[in-house]
Amino acid sequence: MPGGLPRVVLDTNVIVSAAWGGVPWRVVEAWLVGRYLLLISPAILAEYQATLARLHPRSEAAARMLYAVYLKAITVTPRERLTVVRQDPSDDRFLECALAGRARSLVSGDRHLLSLHTFRGISIMTPRAFLEILDVGA
User: Fold this and answer.
1) Could you tell me whether strands 118-119 and 122-125 are parallel, antiparallel, or unpaired per DSSP bridges?
2) pLDDT digit string (tens) for 51-61?
3) Whole-angstrom Cα distance, residue 52 to residue 66?
4) What phi-psi label fits residue 135: left (phi over 0), alpha (psi between -120 and 50 degrees) or beta?
5) Longest dimension (CA), the chain
6) Which residue from 2, 1, 10, 5 is spatially nearest to 125, judged by alpha carbons?
7) What gap in Å lies between CA 19 and CA 14, rounded to an integer?
8) If we measure between CA atoms, which residue out of 28, 1, 5 comes closest to residue 101?
9) Which of 14, 96, 117, 138 gives 78 a disulfide partner, CB atoms 3.0 to 4.6 angstroms apart?
10) How confident is the model over 84-109, as pLDDT tens digits?
11) Which domains occur in the chain, in start order?
């Protein structure tokens, strides 16, 4: 890809759903094999951890995925605090991370984020749409 690998933020719902396989798993798998760079922030990592602990408390696969995120993802520190998603202000953390990390895309199943379509040049899309753009197929 011109300009290097795309920089991408994954919403927590994609990470959590990946534990069950399907399209979300294929999005995570594409990252693991080096098709794009995953961006996280401390707030996003904390949300991943809390949500996986609550929904998959004894899952070794979830623990391994979280460990891979910790080791391999690029951690950015957002400098700008946003108030964009009024229906769910915690979604703003994903936009902040995407801006700070100069992400190309934010991948989510969250209707509040998806309703934005784009934000300051960042494409916001479903996991299936993201796989199509990566040309991995869904």
Assistant:
1) antiparallel
2) 988 988 888 88
3) 8
4) left
5) 41
6) 10
7) 9
8) 5
9) 96
10) 667 765 788 999 999 999 999 999 99
11) 7-134 (3.40.50.1010)
